[in-house]
Amino acid sequence: MSRFPNLSEADSIIMEILWRDGACSSAAILKEIEDKLNWSRQTVRTYLVRLVEKGLVGTKQMNKKAYQYYPVVSRAEYAADKATSLLNKYYDSLPHMLAGILQKEEITEAEFEELEAMLQRMKDKGAR
Questions:
Q1: What share of the chain is helix, strand, coil (3-state, %, to 5)?
Q2: Interatomic CA distance for residues 59 and 67, integer angstroms
Q3: DSSP of 81-105
Q4: Do residues 4 and 81 touch, judged by C-beta distance below 8 A?
Q5: Is the Cβ–Cβ distance between 15 and 7 less than 8 Å?
Q6: Cβ 47 vs Cβ 11: under 8 Å
Q7: Looking at CB atoms within 10 Å, which of 57, 60, 65, 107 has the fewest?
């Protein structure tokens, strides 16, 4: 079972900005996406409030009217949680999951070597 709630497409857009920038105001988020998505200030605030309620975003009051928003969970933590949830739901084991993904995706020789190197580093460090 996943520790973190699923993100909608809109939630993901905002989280990606927060993960990239670390913290920012709703105005800064709106400025970045308003031309692409045609969202209003209220739409951005609604999604931010939902992300706060989901426990993924925190707030810091800057003055009487302005808040700064920041991610409570890192992108890596979120991704690892979702991958583990996927593993538990659809696969028998991590090797089966990885094999399933690699069979469906085109993987270059360089990517395969990088994966092997990562696994070896983890093995050498005793990561289990």
A1: 65, 10, 25
A2: 6
A3: HHHHHHHHHH-SSHHHHHHHHHHHS
A4: yes
A5: yes
A6: yes
A7: 65
Token pair of 8 as six digits = 């909608």
Residue 8 CB partners (closer than 8 Å, separation 6+):
none
Token pair 């998505």: residue: 37
Q: In the prediction, which pLDDT does 58 show?
A: 97
The Cα–Cα gap between 56 and 73 comes to: 6
Residue type, 26: S
Q: How far apart are CA 57 and CA 93, in angstroms?
A: 32
- The pLDDT, as a whole number, for residue 74 is 97
Backbone angles phi and psi of 67, in degrees to 5: -120, 150
pTM value surpassing 0.90: no
What average pLDDT values come out for the chain (128 residues) when binned by 10 residues?
90 96 94 88 94 96 91 96 86 83 83 90 80
